[in-house]
Amino acid sequence: MNNFESSMPLIHNSVDIMTPFLLAAMGGLFTELSGMLNIALEGLMLFGAFFSVVFAYYTGSLFFGVLLGITVTMALSFVFGSITLYLKANVFITGLATNLFASGFTVVLAFHQFGNKGLILFQNLPELPKLTIPLLQKLPFIGDLFLNHNIFVYLSWLVVIIAYLVIYKTPFGMHVRGTGLNARAIKSLGLNPKKYQLSAILISGFTCGLAGSVLTLNLGAFIPNMTSGRGWIALVVIYLGNRTPLGVLIASFIFGFAESFSNYAQGSINIPADFILAFPYLITVAALILHSIWKHYRVEAR
User: Fold this and answer.
1) Do 29 and 238 touch, CB atoms closer than 8 A?
2) Percent of the chain's residues with pLDDT above 90
3) How far is CA 184 from CA 15, 87, 103, 189, in A?
4) Is the predicted pLDDT of residue 270 greater than 80, yes or no?
5) What is the C-alpha separation between 266 and 289, in angstroms, rounded?
6) Following DSSP, what letter does each residue of 68-80 receive, concatenated?
7) Is 79 exposed, middle or buried (0-12, 13-18, 19+ CB in 10 A)?
8) N or C terminus: fewer CB in 10 A for the chain?
């Protein structure tokens, strides 16, 4: 019991940490199901991180900060999608270009606005609201795991539910999946596959805008390239989660737990700090290898 109770803060932090992975991966899931590999998740997250905190700072409102941050991120995703789909640019090149553009543009804009290319602290930002229910908080497991998180955590769970309903219970979701499976069949029905692919990219812009907002509004600060590979990990989460909303949720928690453990291990375990900091990325590589092996044997079994 003591061991279980001592692990609860680790699990609680894992739920917080997994939120950006979950949101970015959920948007990436739509693009993956539509037949496109969206490697621009990293840049889209970075755009959301920068613009949400800047707008929140200037407007004094978390709501408008997040709303405007999402809007700008969706605009970038629209440009990325339009160039890829309608100008027929290579999706890998446009994805990498989007990531590089976001990395450079946010630094330039930060220096222009705040005269700083490093850490930018935003004073007097409103605090993120947290859910606290006194009666439930006293319960041993539920209180520690499901309560006292910031609002983005609960929004991410709501996004998972909505994504499941949209993907499996609506004509739009059926057409998105059909586009990924056989675009010609969708076209033969008089539908435009590119419309569904662009819609999926815009959805990824929406969720990545939210994911970026989590990073900066939680800290009240912006650091250049603060996404630190989370967009790439979100891609791994999609495949490790077997391209399903529930699977993505579970895979996101695994990576959130890995990062939470690496934070906990610093100073607690006598292991070189560089190895501890690299632990989440080692988990990423291991997950990719295991997924490839599992997929190989699954194909052979058929």
Assistant:
1) yes
2) 54
3) 41, 19, 36, 9
4) no
5) 26
6) HHHHHHHHHHHHH
7) middle
8) C
